[in-house]
Amino acid sequence: MGRVPRVHTTIDGVVYQDEVEPRLLLIHYLRDRLGKVGTPIGCDTSNCGACTVHVDGLSVKSCSMLAVQADGCAITTIEGLAPDGGHPVQRAFADCHALQCGYCTPGMVMAAVDLLRENPDPSEAEIREGLEGNLCRCTGYVNIVRAVRAAAEEMGAPGARIHPAPEAAVLPGGVPGAESAAHASAPAGGGTGR
Amino acid sequence: MTATPDAAERVPEIGRARRRKEDARLLTGRTRWTDNLDPAGVLHVAFVRSPLAHGAIRSVDVSGALARPGVVAAFSGADLAAEQGSLPCAWPVTADIVLPDHPPMAVEEVRYVGEAVACVVARDRYAAADALEAVEVDYEPLPAVVDMAAALAEGAPLVHADKGTNRSFVWPFESGDIAAAVDGAEVVLRRRYRQQRLIPAAMEPRAVVCAPEGEGFTLWSSTQVPHILRVMLAMVTGIPEHLIRVVAPDVGGGFGSKLQVTAEEVLALLLARRLDRPVKWTESRTEGFQTTHHGRDQVQDVTIAADRDGRLRGLKVDLLADMGAYLMLITPGIPILGAFMFPGIYKMDAYAFSCTGVFTTKVPTDAYRGAGRPEATFAIERIMDELAAELGMDPLELRRRNWIRHEEFPYTGVGGLTYDSGDYERATARAVELFGYEELRAEQARRREAGDPVQLGIGISTYTEMCGLAPSRVLGELSYAAGGWEHASVRMLPTGKVEVVTGSTPHGQGHATAWSQIVADRLGVPFEDVRVLSGDTQVGPRGMDTYGSRSLVVGGTAVVRACERVVDKARRLAAHLLEADVGDVEFTDGAFAVRGTPEPSVGIQAVALAAFAAHDLPEGVEPSLDSDAAFDPDNFSFPHGTHLCAVEVDTETGRVSVRSYVAVDDVGKVVNPLIVEGQVHGGLAQGIAQALYEEAVHDAEGNLLTSTMADYLLPSSADLPDFVTDRTETPATGNPLGAKGVGEAGTIASTPAVVNAVVDALRPYGVADVEMPCKPERVWRALWDAAARNGGAR
Questions:
Q1: How far is CA B457 from the centre of its chain?
Q2: For the region Disordered, what residue ranges are annotated (chain A) (predicted)?
Q3: Residue B513: is its pLDDT beyond 60?
Q4: Mind listing the domains of chain A with CATH numbers?
Q5: pLDDT digits (tens, 9 = 90+) for B163-187
Q6: Residue A29 half-sphere exposure, CB side, CA atoms within 13 Å?
Q7: Measured over all CA atoms, what is the biggest interatomic distance in chain B, rounded to whole angstroms?
Q8: Distance (Å, rounded) from C-alpha B514 to C-alpha B507?
């Protein structure tokens, strides 16, 4: 029996020191050993991005990293991103209805925060390209793109607002036949035919 | 006696774009997904699954696994044969349907790749997975049956040898004289469309935890249907229903894939009973793609008959529907749900439909967003475009000549459904305006003229769908085993706060927010004072759960009814407190007052306290202020709308990109426009994905080649366009909310709009169809095949 590796990490501000099997995935270490179940698992091929966390400030799919590789690292998960969910990206996701079932949301938010770190003023196309590694099955991405753009502005990006978040207004739903304001926006470039 | 807030200040909640109550926990990771639950002493289950699409099981030996570290138990199908029962099919659509046994773990034969043959129960998920390799299974390979036509051919290998046929059922429907309509028509078109097999792929994999608790069991599952699941678990296992509690905690999407009673749920219950320990299983994504039911998979032979002026005479549809290896909860009912929708929004003299359900050695099909209706809408909307091309008519004009006009509602069509309301003219006019239809047609003409290698195509889909599932009477007539009602409880607590229990179980739809809005308006209490409870058969024992765009229409109406009863009871107590006659007491914005004399008044929240204290109740009024209601609709509801899609098709590479997409939907009255828009967006994404990207592919041996997210193309943000959405509002007449349902509209409408656009772009090249998904290779081949037909290379 070989020596069992020991990992030292700081996760959401808490210091951990554990012996782990060399093959243990970081996501399983977080969920099964530490009980940090705020970060979910969506696939087994690192395609979906639901398990995205920050390792030393950079977004990483925690299913594609071993716990031992995180030795000496500072890790931030959705649980520790901001007190009370107050990060501008989290607030923008709620404001723009950028989540439905919410399963992809932890990873999507963490990926979006890293995207804005790299590019504080992204265009719609840059947001779409930048979040390509995070799959959502509920939203069709339109409101996620709006939310990331809204967060960029909240965080001080100079660019013009391209997708105003819908106002919390009373729409004319009370009048039979009344039409709401169209949430029409500029056409996008379309699919990449990946 | 205190008055609630001034009536003049109150803004109606219904119609308001409230931010969701659900989001705070979802955005911070404070969620209760089933896989997050670890009851003390929980054991982990892993399954040995068949590598063959078809084979006889000669032997299963689990002894090697039992010797592995951390393994507590291991069982073969034979070990559980006496207790595991057969997975249920609740929709035997015909009296003579062939309905095979479906053991949760295979005992004698495996019939699709991934079918469970043995299980290992161990201290953690790694130990369980490690031990799988130590289970020895000996199979005798049998021939796979992958293609439906081959399955029906004379002498074909049988999926279920004892049944003597691969044909499960034939379900016919006829309305009007179809032979006369076709024979008498000036134009008759026949087309074959293929609805490829799709993988629903909710982001949360399926998971189940089951714990013995007291004299019974609690089973947590990532399910859309905890109430249906509870009944079915009792019927399958024989464990009495009152000893089973089912909980759907936070559920990460379903799209129909979690409207199911699965092998793993039944087995978790049986293993918890055998071992007297909590057990847990979570599927890997690959396991999920192989074993969670698939959707669609039909071959549609469609005949349309019309006059030269475009007037429709008749429609004939012959379906082959791939059941897969077994009939699961509503497998055979899915194509039947579509049967009534093929005529769409059009008037015609006659309609004939026939569906043949076919067994193959693939994972079963069942509900996937739209469930039968996307397939039907695709067929009618595709062939309407082909008819327009045949007649040399603008496809919008052909539709106008045939659709039901707004003044003709209510209208009973040849499909036998009575559409209660709608205004196709107005939705279409709005879509045309937002899309810039004429300008795009002009650009298309210019590009065609110039021989531009990138051609522009315009696709139309004018759809309706039946939702608000469903009138129990109709479901009974269609041989469905249960009803379609929904239940709600509304209870006012002593402090005036409100608990609402809904039988409709959400998994992303925002019930907690929308139901709070309804209750806030009906009871005149603050939105924040309402809490919605759901998904636990102990908290809300009655319910029919969430699917078929039914929650608001049926479940929301039950909430309205329960609120009305609460107000009725409160009115009697308020009258007593106001020393007035009940008939003279009015209820406005949360306060009761005597008609014509607004003061003094008593607020409903104060009445709740008086009902709790019960110090001074009038004759016949019982303590506490709460009520139950169930609602069973008389009819379906019929959302409709017009979707317009513009695509650019590169004729040199076959690449399709969506340039613009306009969706104008009429889902009736809207409770929360933010949630409605989100539902439309998500529906569009899934419908567009069927048109362009997704396909479950099997090889000739029945292996699923697209068994990972690396192989099955779920669209990312970079693969989809922005959407332009708008609504018209023609209230539904069958419920007090005027709501029609919105969960499936986007998926139902969008697939034909996109494919119509692709074909429209290529029609000058002689292309009349591209099989879905319209990936570059298919488009390119369609162009070359057309060129070859036209006698020469391009």
A1: 30
A2: 171-194
A3: yes
A4: 6-80 (3.10.20.30), 83-154 (1.10.150.120)
A5: 999 999 999 999 999 999 999 999 9
A6: 30
A7: 94
A8: 14
